[in-house]
Design goal:
It is built from 17 helices and no strands. By secondary structure, it is mainly alpha-helical. Keywords: Membrane, Transmembrane, Transmembrane helix.
Length: 433
């Protein structure tokens, strides 16, 4: 009979432990503050355009151009971060973006629609890539994969707060002062948050891991069938989100309750926030791929009650369900991207992931806008986008499992291997520091 005691199970990670780790609170708070313009600028631009006599149609076009140009520029800025570091990209981008937002009201007396459009597009192109940058920083800030797993879920879940707090803050500033003031505050918050992150020691020290030793010194290829399929599935996720936003407006018009256009997206974002909190606290034994597919299936099921055309109260409760699983899908998609992308190009890979969701969201908004007058068609579109995402993930399931690293030339890892029994989701390539 052996008297050797069995090892005690690893304690469950807590958000207190995550936030108590060096630099985590600063990086997370700075990123959320620096990204508030993502939720504020589109609304502030519309309000400024209408107040300046441009009309709501032109304001909506400017808002869409800002969001689209911001998404399209993500891979380029991610590639620049992988080459030159985060601080060298974040600070110039934030300075340009803030200056353009402050300068936008000056186009009224000194320029026409062409100059206004150019400033808005340039402002979108210059948004700092804080989201991709933070995901690349987690391995160096949190070497413990369990804490990193919780941090990723917390980071992903709190994104929904940007689209609750941001529009409300703009509306308050515009009503009590002016849309010009709202644009100025948006610029200040973006600059302050970005500086908080970019000047933090982890961001200043961060460099991508060098690529594995290969015969040719060429930059490793980013595109692979697995990543392409993963990003294609995320287009469907974004499509569902974009269609949901327009469906919320349709519900508000149908039931003559204007607040529904804000309440329904807020309920969806609240579900995402709570889902992220719950997901990050669990100790998962399943693989990342299985969790990704399972969460995508639940995301599809969450949209099905909309097909029964529920009333306002039931709809508000219903949209929180797919929101809760959105965080799991996105968090596991980031982990999968990390395991499949070349070590020297992780920031660029994260940026392509963000772009995929953004493109899908734009497509969902555009198509749902054309069908907004048809109640059933508008309610079907979110589940259609989610179903497309699930179908692609099921077809790509085998490809999404990361290949075994060859024993002859393993990737360098600055962190010790995790203890046996840690969840597979966060035990991804720990060489990305």
């Amino acid at each position: 009979m052996s008297l050797t005691a069995s090892p005690a199970p690893a304690p469950r990670p807590t958000y207190g432990a995550v936030l108590g780790s060096p630099y985590v609170t600063r990086l997370l708070a700075g990123t959320l503050t620096g990204r508030l313009p993502n939720g504020m600028a589109p609304v502030a631009i519309v309000l400024w355009a209408t107040a300046s006599g441009h009309g709501i149609a032109f304001g909506g076009l400017l808002s869409a151009l800002y969001g689209l140009s911001s998404a399209l520029a993500q891979p380029v800025k991610g590639r620049l971060m992988d080459r030159h570091g985060q601080t060298a990209v974040h600070l110039p981008a934030a300075l340009i973006n803030s200056a353009l937002l402050v300068a936008l009201p000056l186009t009224g007396p000194y320029g026409g629609a062409g100059l206004t459009t150019a400033i808005v597009v340039a402002g979108g192109l210059s948004t700092p890539p804080l989201e991709a940058g933070l995901r690349a920083l987690w391995p160096s800030v949190l070497p413990d994969p369990r804490l990193r797993h919780a941090a990723l879920a917390l980071d992903t879940g709190t994104q929904g707060l940007l689209y609750i707090v941001g529009p409300l803050l703009v509306a308050a500033l515009a009503s009590t002062h002016s849309p010009t003031t709202a644009l100025a505050v948006t610029a200040v918050l973006g600059m302050a948050g970005t500086a908080t992150v970019a000047l933090a020691p982890p961001a200043r020290r961060w460099r991508p891991a060098p690529p594995a030793q290969e015969p040719a010194p060429e930059t490793p290829r980013l595109a692979s069938p697995a990543l392409v399929l993963l990003f294609a599935s995320l287009v469907g996720i974004g499509f569902a989100i974009g269609a949901m936003n327009v469906w919320a407006v349709s519900m508000a018009e149908q039931h003559r309750q204007e607040m529904l256009s804000g309440i329904l997206p807020a309920a969806f974002s609240t579900g995402s926030f709570l889902g992220g909190l719950l997901y990050g606290r669990r100790h998962w034994n399943s693989t990342t791929t299985s969790r990704l597919v399972t969460a995508a299936a639940a995301f599809v099921a969450g949209w099905l009650p909309l097909l029964f055309l529920p009333g306002p109260y039931a709809a508000t409760v219903a949209v929180a369900v797919p929101g809760a699983f959105l965080t799991v899908v996105v968090a596991c998609a980031y982990v999968t991207t990390d395991t499949l992308a070349p070590a020297a190009r992780t920031s660029e890979a994260y940026a392509w992931l963000i772009l995929s969701i953004g493109v899908g969201q734009s497509a969902g908004t555009a198509l749902s806008g054309r069908l907004a007058g048809q109640a059933l068609a508008s309610a079907v579109l979110p589940s259609a986008g989610a179903t497309f995402a699930l179908a692609v993930l099921l077809a790509a399931r085998r490809r999404l499992v990361p290949p075994q690293q060859p024993t002859s030339s393993p990737r360098p890892s600055p962190f010790p291997p995790p203890p046996i029994g840690d969840p597979p989701c966060p035990t991804h390539q720990q060489s990305r520091s």
